[in-house]
Amino acid sequence: MSEYLHVEKPFLDQLAALGWTVIDQGQGFIPSDPAASQRDTFREWLLPYIFREAIRAINLTPDGKAWLTDRQLDDLHTQILRQPNRTLLEANEAIQALLFKAQVDVNEVTGESDPVVGLIDFTHPERNIFHAINQFRIDTPGCPKSCIIPDIVLFVNGIPLVVIEAKIGDANTANPMHAAFEQLLRYRNGRPETTAAGLREGEPRLFHTNLMLIRTCGEKAEYGTITSGHEHFYSWKDIWPEINRDYTPPLGVEREQERMIQGLLAPVTLLDVLRTCSVFKDTDSGKRVKVVCRYQQYRAAHKILHRLRHGSTAMARSGVVWHTQGSGKSLTMVFVARMLRTSTDLSDYKILLVNDRVDLEEQLAGTAKLIGGKVNVIESTADLREHLSTLASDINMVMVHKFMERSEALPLRVAEALATYRAIPSGESFGVVNASERILLMIDEAHRTQGSDLGENIFEAFPNATRIAFTGTPLIGAMQDIKLRADFEVYLNKFLQSLNLILPHSTGHPFRGPARRFGYLLRMVKERYKDETLDIADAGAKVIQCLKLMSCSKLQTELVEVSPAKVRQ
């Protein structure tokens, strides 16, 4: 089967079923008419007419009148096109900021000066125009090859957000995924050997507005960003929200490609990822990178928001996220906060990030800046009572030992050690700091402190707050050693495929023992209930039943979920 029939056409057909307008230019030839892809020339990489039509339509006065003039639309077009003396990453970061907030000189209908213009309507995704165009030719004069032809490009309001390269294995392509990666590098003039030779190839401007890159051969499909190396492309292993799981794969079987399209490229999901789950950050080595969420981060963040919206009590809104080391929990906190800030019904939440070590505070402080806006660092117990008692919808960060009332101050390192080992002497009641229900506590490394008096003080200070605890400790294996609070409904991100636990690769990984024990419990469930196709949502409850039969009464869980190891940029 050809690349077109095995990969490209099924990709386009599935996008069409999700609501994308597909322009299929076929296969086997170089496109010769730019009008077929909504352009005047093959040098254009924005779709100019779609851009003007869409931007004019989504920017209306309160009484529904379009107010942008032709001159202003031309100016917005130029703001995107003109990125002088900027690297690809610099231009990409600048334009992403424009996608969230662009401005023109005046609203000539209302008289407002410097009004904000929406280039994408994130609040009403259905008002945007979504195009998927295959064989998208862009001429590249002065390069060794006269043009590039990415297999598929996805546009929102005429702005290219996703570039997709499809390959299949054949006599000339032993590793189609690596070949697709190299092709994506060539398209954006990203191959070091080309630069070293003093040559230029591709059209980097196509990637100035890029959210993500996708390489696919059908059976495997992975996404990354313009800064991702070959090893930093990842598959999207789950379809969320669950409503999108009801679909018919174009070829009759669900491969990684179909799962990624359904889980990541649905129009609403793609815009959500762009708005809340794509960030630019500096790595420890000093290199700046672009990061897009992984599927377990996106799913966990939305589960938290679902609880905030539908939980009737503090307990019902709270929970525990169990993650493996390197799974990106700090970024998950960032994505949750960004989702809150951009929502219409949850934006008034006060956010409090709680940690227990200086090095974690520094790390989390750097990550918290990605939320946007000011992050208040609470320096003392007095500051805690003063700043956190207000109803302001702000972002705060505090070390857990600030919840310890003592007449004599302890050295910071001693306080850290006490928090870490939970050997906190009981003291007087800490008291209520803020009784509001519109408070979200996100507690880092919660297993070290939440079984101590510090944990009691936190809950006493914010009795009606939502508490989301993040821990990497294997709760099942360490249940005898961890004092679980009844206040926490434990839920752990499910990463089970047909009830088979996916074990970490490292034989020395601390999860291996507990994972094997839990794997044993799952096998016991299968045997007990004689159901090899047991629904994953029912598995947790049935495991609990088996555990109760084994007198493991201390375990209180609602759902068992594990996040995969290692997330990299």
Global shape: globular
- Rg, please? 26 Å
List unreliable stretches of 5+ residues: 406-410, 417-427, 475-518, 529-537, 543-569
Number of domains: 2
End-to-end gap: 34 Å
Structural class: alpha/beta
Number of helices: 17
Instruction: Please give the largest β-sheet.
Output: 6 strands, mixed
Measured as a percent range, the helix fraction is 25-40%
Strand percent estimate? 15-25%
Find the count of extended strands (DSSP E, 2+ residues): 22
Spatial strand sequence of the major β-sheet: 1-4-7-8-9-10
Average pLDDT over all residues: 81
How would you sum up this structure in a few lines?
This protein has 569 residues and is of the alpha/beta class.
Can you describe this structure?
Helix 1 runs parallel beside helix 7 and helix 2 packs across helix 3. Strands 1-4-7-8-9-10 form a 6-stranded mixed beta sheet, sandwiched between helices. A 6-stranded parallel beta sheet has the order 13-18-17-14-16-15. Strands 2-3 form a two-stranded antiparallel ribbon. It is globular. The protein is an alpha/beta fold. The C terminus is likely disordered. It has 17 helices and 22 strands. The chain folds into 2 domains: 277 residues, no CATH class; 196 residues, P-loop containing nucleotide triphosphate hydrolases (Rossmann fold, 3-Layer(aba) Sandwich).
Note the main attributes of this structure.
569 residues; Rossmann fold; 2 domains; six-stranded mixed sheet
Secondary-structure blueprint of this entry?
Elements: H1 3-17, E1 21-23, H2 48-58, H3 70-81, H4 88-100, E2 102-103, E3 116-117, E4 130-134, E5 138-139, E6 147-148, E7 152-156, E8 159-166, H5 176-187, H6 192-196, E9 212-216, E10 221-224, H7 256-264, H8 267-276, E11 278-282, E12 288-292, H9 295-310, H10 314-317, E13 319-322, H11 329-342, E14 350-355, H12 358-368, E15 375-377, H13 381-387, E16 395-399, H14 412-421, E17 439-443, H15 453-461, E18 466-471, E19 490-491, E20 496-497, E21 500-501, H16 512-529, H17 536-549, E22 557-559
Parallel strand pairs: 1-4, 8-9, 13-18, 14-16, 14-17, 15-16, 17-18, 19-22
Antiparallel strand pairs: 2-3, 4-7, 5-6, 7-8, 9-10, 11-12, 20-21
Helix pairs in contact: 1-7, 2-3, 9-11, 16-17
